[in-house]
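ok, trying the design again with the full structure, not the truncated one.
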């Protein structure tokens, strides 16, 4: 989809310059792996509660745990 968009907007690239395009299949750097693990740990401390009307909200799984907040 991105490649089709870039082909369709080729005339704009003449004016604004080329966009950087890279492969999405590259290896993750150590920094990105650390950030991913940190984000996963942060996400695991929360629990999603669904109300009867279908809406959702997020609450801490353990309110006393302040390690990531």
């Amino acid at each position: 989809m991105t490649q089709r968009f870039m082909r369709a907007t080729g005339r704009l690239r003449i004016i604004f310059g080329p966009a950087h395009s890279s492969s999405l299949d590259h290896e993750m750097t150590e920094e990105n792996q650390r950030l991913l693990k940190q984000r996963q740990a942060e996400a695991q401390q929360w629990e999603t509660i669904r109300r009867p009307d279908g809406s959702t909200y997020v609450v801490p799984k353990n309110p006393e745990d302040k390690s990531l907040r």
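Keeping the full-length input from now on. Residues 37-62 form one domain.
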